[in-house]
Specification:
With 324 residues, the chain is an alpha/beta fold. The chain has helices at 14-22, 38-54, 66-73, 95-102, 131-143, 154-163, 187-194, 217-231, 249-256, 288-298, 302-320; strands at 4-8, 27-33, 59-61, 77-83, 104-108, 146-148, 169-173, 199-202, 236-238. Strands 1, 2, 3, 4, 5 and 6 form a six-stranded parallel beta sheet that branches. Strands 7-8-9 form a three-stranded parallel beta sheet.
Length: 324
Amino acid sequence: MFRIDNLQYAKWSEKIFRQLREGGVDAVHVTIAYHENFRETVLNFAQWNRWFEQFPDLICHGEWASDVQKAHDTGRTAVFFGFQNPSPIEDDIGLVQVLHKLGARFMQLSYNNQSLLATGCYEAEDPGITRMGRQVIKEMNRVGMVIDMSHSADRSTIEAADISQRPITITHANLHSWQPALRNKRDAVVRAVVQNGGMMGFSLYPHHLRDKSACTLHSFCEMVARAAEQFGAQHFGIGSDLCQDQPDSVVEWMRVGRWTKEIDYGEGSASAPGFPPMPDWFRDNRDFGTLETGLREIGFDADEVAGLMGDNWHRFYAENFTPT
């Protein structure tokens, strides 16, 4: 069994790399762009290359599914790269292949707002996938970069799932029927993703949880069980959205970027943006064992638990990171 977290945006440090190892996390998908352009994103790749040099006993660069097994066998965590916005490709479809060659494996087609490709979940209207979006989906399919619709609006997500010739993802969200946050996904959206072989990662970010930071492990695992019963456990995994050690100012960057001069509060507090405290049963990467125990106790069998904790993501990586 592998342990894979398919979305984190921590303030990376040796401390967190060691906690990944303490938690037995074999692979993690890390966000390396929110609003960065191509040049700025390349500099983020360069920073990770330095970390791989500094901590070769803790982390390694993940490019293919086989790297998860290599990391597991050598007691390390494979780090896979992704973007929460298509800003790194700017307005140039040719950069999709360039970024895949650098190691990018996931890209969201929009982050909250309308992009050149798709509509974000905060927009009042959702006209769906754009003309450029259709072409970028085709190119992402070709090179092996996975389409992520975590912050996209409903119509855009359903259209992306239908247009794509390969399975797509929602890397970090929960069921809207369990917690009606703007970012959580309605059944029709989840169904569109999974019926085409796609995957969804369950989020532990408190604004996506019922009762927020006070959410119980039992309540979270009940939601996972409901999703598995409705759509099939093989389509789900974890995408914790852990933002460990990030200062509150980073929330402003995530929400505002460079597109507005006003503070966009997004989900959560109406008075000031900031990171909410994590639930006490999942504070950091060392608590993956607690989550695994919760899934067992809610009634999942050993194979289902293994799938939810990482094996489903590993299978998805194997099928979708390689070029067609």
